[in-house]
Amino acid sequence: MYMLDSNIISALMNEHPKASRRFDKELLHNICIPSIVWAEVRYGICKKGSIKLQKSAESLAKMIRIVPFNQQTADIYAQLRAAMEKQGKNLSPMDMLIAASAVANHCVLVTNDQAFLQVETLPVEDWTV
């Protein structure tokens, strides 16, 4: 199962060739979006006020399941954040929530943000390279 980060959703909405080809190769039931990322995407669209991006995001959301943030994810977030702080590693709070969502749902996080590589228990792929 693949979980998309906001930068990959942005790449797809902007028709990034490599990301689009990779997305098209996957079965849609094997791809999801964490609700935290969906909030980031919606915020970016609201900030830009782009009708085109809004329609593109809505189309994507109709095809891909949005995974809610739940108690299990919250528990994993707490464990991950505490473990990373003990190791002297730090991600932004939003990135920690996204990482926890991927770990909780046994997903590969699809992102081009290298910061996620700090999370040892999180498999990461970049579909833009």
Could you please describe the fold and organization of this structure?
- Helices cover 56% and strands 12% of the residues.
- The chain is α/β, with parallel strands linked by helices and 129 residues long.
- It has a single domain, classed as 5'-nuclease (Rossmann fold, 3-Layer(aba) Sandwich).
- A 5-stranded parallel β-sheet has the order 3-2-1-4-5.
- The longest helix is centred in the middle third of the chain and has 16 residues.
Write the layout of secondary structure elements.
Layout: E1 2-4, H1 6-13, H2 17-25, E2 31-34, H3 35-48, H4 51-63, E3 65-67, H5 71-86, H6 93-104, E4 108-110, E5 124-125
Parallel strand pairs: 1-2, 1-4, 2-3, 4-5
Helix pairs in contact: 3-4, 5-6
CATH class: Alpha Beta
Rg (CA only): 14 Å
Q: Which parts are unreliable, with pLDDT below 50 for 5 consecutive residues or more? A: none
Second rung of CATH, namely the architecture: 3-Layer(aba) Sandwich
Helix content: 55-70%
Basic shape = globular
Number of helices: 6
User: What does the largest sheet look like?
Assistant: 5 strands, parallel
Total number of distinct structural domains: 1
Number of strands: 5
> How much of the polypeptide forms β-strand, as a percent range?
5-15%
Beginning-to-end CA distance, first to last residue: 19 Å
Order of helices and strands: EHHEHHEHHEE
Class derived from helix and strand content: alpha/beta
Give the CATH superfamily.
5'-nuclease
CATH topology: Rossmann fold
Average pLDDT figure: 95
Strand order of the largest sheet: 3-2-1-4-5
